[in-house]
Write a structure and sequence with these properties.
By secondary structure, the protein is α+β, with helices and mostly antiparallel strands. Helices cover 40% and strands 27% of the residues. The longest helix has 27 residues, at 82-108.
């Protein structure tokens, strides 16, 4: 049996109010007065009050985008090149990953040299040597630590990482460090597209890490589930463009989840001799207010169980925004720190459209 011994989280030091980021988005894209009002309205409806962004300054501006030349095509601004965004990622992601990982190790009471495997998750930056190499040096991990990198899985990446970390812990008896780090703000999109402005309004930066050990000393990882929802390839996508990574997010996603998630989760839990009604706590990745609502409705949650799940998801979205893969770990930490007992299901959704689930007992 594998257990989550600890969870550590970290965010950039600068916190930006949503009203400020809306004004900055309008300024960067040279929006007309009418367009600026539409951006403000969408940002206000995002469910986000503030976000931590590596690209932001205390003044509310985003110097990274101002300092890097903006490319144009047919008179439309496209923003900095992907290579300049990745260079910024390589500069700033390791520090955030280190902060979350150091907290997780300290809370677990485990020396860095005792970690046998490092599982790294990220979908907002690529490079080799990468953040995992930097963490070995920064944390003082053994030079013999075995590394696994999980890339481009999107918002459910932490659950993919937990699955890999649990398998390594179970198979080897080792202690595994999982770290998710995302700098979503680097991929601010200038050109309007399906879901681009919504993504600009929702996504934020952060890192989450946890230590897994082969015992029952923490929250126990019981099982995992996956589902690829058919005929949904273009509902949500995440692709590398010339001017940042580009997200497609269609308005049909919440409805698709509402009609599909319940049947999937119920079938998966049945194989564990459980039903949806048997689950005490739900950690549902806050992809946006409508996605949260679609998932809750699809699961048929009601009463106090729904209120707790809704409060956790909406509260995380309000305080941090959608940080992509680390977000589930932020929510799980809040749940575990409150000494909440019982069975918990973590759910997250990503490009494909696909879903990932983890069953945990604390």
């Amino acid at each position: 049996m594998s257990s989550i011994r600890s969870v550590g989280t970290a965010v950039p030091t600068v916190s930006s109010e949503q009203s400020d980021t809306a004004r900055e988005a309008a300024r960067l894209t040279q929006a007309s007065e009418r367009r600026a009002r539409a951006i403000e309205k969408l940002y206000n409806a995002s469910g986000v009050d503030e976000r931590h962004l590596v690209v932001a300054s205390e003044s509310g501006h985003m110097p990274f985008f101002a300092d890097h030349q903006s490319s144009h095509q047919d008179g439309v601004q496209l923003g900095p090149t992907t290579s300049s965004r990745i260079a910024f990622y390589e500069q700033h992601a390791p520090r955030l990953a280190y902060e979350a990982s150091e907290k997780a190790l300290r809370e677990a009471g485990i020396e860095a040299t005792d970690i046998s495997h490092l599982v790294m998750v990220s979908c907002t930056g690529l490079g080799s040597p990468g953040v995992d190499h930097r963490l070995i040096e920064m944390l003082g991990l053994s030079r013999d630590v075995q590394r696994t990198f999980i890339g481009f899985m999107g918002c459910h990446g932490a659950i993919n990482g937990l699955r890999a970390a649990e398998a390594l812990t179970h198979a080897t008896g080792g202690k595994v460090l999982l770290c998710c780090v995302e700098l979503c703000s680097l991929h601010f999109q200038y050109a309007p597209g399906p879901g681009a402005v919504t993504a600009n309004a929702l996504f934020a930066d952060g890192a989450g890490a946890c230590v897994l050990t082969p015992d029952d000393s923490g929250a126990q990882l019981l099982n995992f589930g996956s589902r690829f929802f058919p005929n949904s390839d273009e509902e949500m996508s995440w692709r590398i463009g010339d001017h940042g990574f580009e997200m497609t997010l269609l308005a049909s996603v919440p409805g698709l989840l509402q009609s599909s998630v319940g049947e999937w989760v119920q079938g998966w839990l049945k194989r564990e001799s459980l039903n949806i009604g048997d689950i005490d706590n739900w950690v549902i990745h806050p992809g946006g207010p409508k996605i949260i609502e679609g998932a809750l409705d699809g699961l048929g949650l009601a009463g106090d169980t729904r209120k707790r799940a809704e409060s956790l998801a909406l509260g995380t979205l309000r305080r941090f925004g959608n940080m992509s893969s680390p977000t589930v770990l932020f929510m799980l930490k809040e749940l575990l720190d409150s000494n909440t007992k019982g069975t918990t299901v973590c759910l997250a959704f990503g490009p494909g459209l696909s879903g990932e689930a983890a069953l945990i007992r604390s």
